[in-house]
Write a structure and sequence with these properties.
Length: 256
């Protein structure tokens, strides 16, 4: 399996199972960030039964080894840099799934380890790729949120969900033009100081994994479901056009 990851493997998450589980993946302000979930930075807001967590659309966490699992997997979880909007208005941080949780999540999606030659190192790489993709996505969200820095200087991720089979209109249009479809899609709801803003994230295959465990090309933008979001996208489109136009005039070699 190596460093290659399927669509199901990327962006899977689930909450920790210890009586009071912390939330799911993705994602902490970098100040005073704990290195593991031993600090238990946040709690799951739903009942600990077979219900679906509305904040990440995942069932309760499973840290138990699966039947016939060929090797033991770590259960430690990493705290992300992505702040979480709590129901009481406080800020905590999203927590990534452990390798064991990720393994169990892949089994729920139909993957079976006997079908592939997989090693413990592969699972470690998968988790690092998964976490790096989500960190990259949040940084892209923050670039858009910078347009509203005066009204809200601390946006937080409220909830998220995968929609791998529901291609966005832009992805479908690109496909008609001959481009590949994304291997995954997430919709993130960002709390902009009390205002919910939906973002669409399309994940495209970027080839080999780099030394930062990134391989996906991310297309992150606010959904066109409000006038404000449409206006933001128009402003950014104009800024990009103006930058490219002025850049080409100042650097004629770029057009040759």
């Amino acid at each position: 399996m190596g460093n290659k990851v399927s669509a199901e493997a990327v962006n899977i998450s689930s909450p920790v199972q210890d009586g009071n589980p912390p939330p799911e993946c993705p994602m902490h302000n970098k100040a005073e960030k704990p290195k593991s979930t031993d600090a238990r930075p946040s709690e799951c807001p739903v009942q600990h039964d077979n219900s679906i967590n509305p904040y990440n659309m995942m069932p309760p966490a499973n840290q138990q080894p699966a039947p016939d699992q060929p090797f033991q997997l770590p259960t430690q979880r990493q705290v992300s840099t992505i702040p979480r909007a709590m129901p009481d208005g406080s800020t905590e941080f999203w927590v990534y799934p452990s390798q064991q949780m990720f393994w169990n999540a892949m089994l729920r999606k139909g993957w079976r380890w006997k079908d592939e030659d997989i090693k413990p190192k592969d699972m470690d790489d998968i988790i690092k790729i998964h976490n790096a993709n989500n960190e990259q996505a949040w940084q892209e969200v923050l670039k858009w949120e910078a347009l509203h820095a005066k009204e809200c200087g601390h946006p937080r991720l409220k909830s998220f969900g995968g929609k791998a089979t529901q291609y966005s209109p832009r992805a479908q249009m690109r496909s008609l033009l001959g481009y590949e479809l994304p291997f995954d899609r997430h919709d993130w709801i960002v709390d902009r100081c009390g205002k919910d803003v939906r973002y669409i994230i399309d994940y495209y295959d970027g080839g080999e994994v780099d030394n930062k465990y990134q391989f996906a090309l991310l297309d992150v933008r606010p959904a066109m479901d409000s006038f404000e979001n449409v206006w933001d996208r128009m402003k950014v489109m104009y800024m990009r056009y103006r930058f490219e136009l002025l850049g080409n005039k100042e650097n004629p070699k770029l057009t040759n």
